[in-house]
Amino acid sequence: MLKRLTVIAIALAIGWGMAPAPVAGQDTPQWRGPNRDGSVVGFDVPSAWPEGLTRQWTIDVGFGYATPLLVGDRMYVFSRQGDDEVMQALDPASGETVWRSSYSARFQMMPATRVHGPGPKSTPAYADGRLFTLGISGIVTAFDASDGRQLWQRPADPVEPLYHTGQSPLVDGDHVILHVGGQDAGALTAFDAATGDVQWSWDGDGPAYGSPVIAEVEGVRQVITFTQENIVGVAADNGQLLWSRPFTTPSTTTSQTPQIYEGDVIQTGRANGVTRFRIVREGNAWTTEDVWRTDEVGLHMTNPVVVDGVLYGLSHLNSGQYFGLDLDTGEVLWTSAPRQAENAAILNAGGTIVSLQDDAELVVLPSSRTGFEPVQRYEVAESATWTQPTLVGNRVYVKDVETLTLWTVE
């Protein structure tokens, strides 16, 4: 049963006084939003959150944890249906299918991953009219976003990551960047966005499950990402390794996306606390140096957000504990009560923290340096929610294990 939520019957034809407001503001074209940092620009934060959200529709879209993309008047969803991986375009107002494209993606699931299902877990990326996906077994595909035509496809490697794939594509100009392959047999690779041809690759370490980011440091554009045993920076134009520092977790490899703050990197992972480090260039040599480190909190699969110099996240310590951390000093400003959730998909909507927990509870709290003070909690699904919600206008799109639901803030 849905708790703390006024459930409104699903409107099959949206139009009897509860129609969603028109979509406005910035698109969600990739993992963690336009800037790849969990910040949402186009969501209208209400002055007072209602007691309940209004459910407009729920549709079956298939299995998986990929974030639904919203670009213009189209929503794109990547999922599994049977033995196929499916990309589909939807009307974001009605949920009706505009086009559907699929390919065969049978694979042997690692027993330890059965609790999380057969994926896909990678969020697509949209750029210049194309969609790019990474399948659960490592298949890389480009689609035409207008009609779903497959433009090119790279098959899976013979060796895949131990727990399959979780990384989301990064588009940088004409390059689609992914760390493909498996343990001791993978390469961080830049594919030509139009043809799929390899433009450069770096094979110094195997892939992790987290996703890369782009940052410009000392005038050099860099791809910064976790690998199997390190966190590295490589030149975005040619893949040359610039710097590397050891990093491992008890979970084999990390599933974090690096966070950039004032040109420094925020590094975190299970049993590794949180570290802010600086990338330093001396001539042609690159090194890194710690600014601060704390073991009071840490993150496992949850990615944090930054608001006004404070890092907000859900620590894996104490069975799931929200926290606020001063990024200038490394001081933990506050922690919530323990046992909040196992995992959470956290977004920053204009200074308001919106956290979708894996137990299907959507938690809303103001950014604060003083404490954890949620203003509202909503139950928004009837199964686990490992996917980041998509927020725009007064709409909240929630993908659970197999369905997509549109809620509105009335």
List the helices and strands and how they pair.
Blueprint: E1 39-40, E2 54-60, E3 69-71, E4 74-81, E5 84-90, E6 97-104, E7 125-127, E8 130-134, E9 140-144, E10 150-154, E11 170-172, E12 175-180, E13 187-192, E14 198-202, E15 213-217, E16 220-226, E17 230-235, E18 241-246, E19 259-261, E20 264-268, E21 274-282, E22 285-294, E23 305-307, E24 310-315, E25 321-326, E26 332-335, E27 344-349, E28 352-357, E29 361-366, E30 376-379, E31 390-392, E32 395-399, E33 403-408
Parallel strand pairs: 1-27
Antiparallel strand pairs: 2-33, 3-4, 4-5, 5-6, 7-8, 8-9, 9-10, 11-12, 12-13, 13-14, 15-16, 16-17, 17-18, 19-20, 20-21, 21-22, 23-24, 24-25, 25-26, 27-28, 28-29, 29-30, 31-32, 32-33
Give a description of the structure.
This protein is an all-beta fold and 410 residues long. It has a single domain (39-408), classed as Methylamine Dehydrogenase, Chain H (7 Propeller), CATH 2.130.10. Helix content is 0%, strand content 44%. It contains no helices and 33 strands. The chain has strands spanning 39-40, 54-60, 69-71, 74-81, 84-90, 97-104, 125-127, 130-134, 140-144, 150-154, 170-172, 175-180, 187-192, 198-202, 213-217, 220-226, 230-235, 241-246, 259-261, 264-268, 274-282, 285-294, 305-307, 310-315, 321-326, 332-335, 344-349, 352-357, 361-366, 376-379, 390-392, 395-399, 403-408. A 5-stranded mixed beta sheet has the order 1-27-28-29-30, with no helix packed on it. A 4-stranded antiparallel beta sheet has the order 2-33-32-31, with no helix packed on it. A 4-stranded antiparallel beta sheet has the order 3-4-5-6, with no helix packed on it. Strand 25 (321-326) and strand 26 (332-335) form a beta hairpin. The protein is globular.
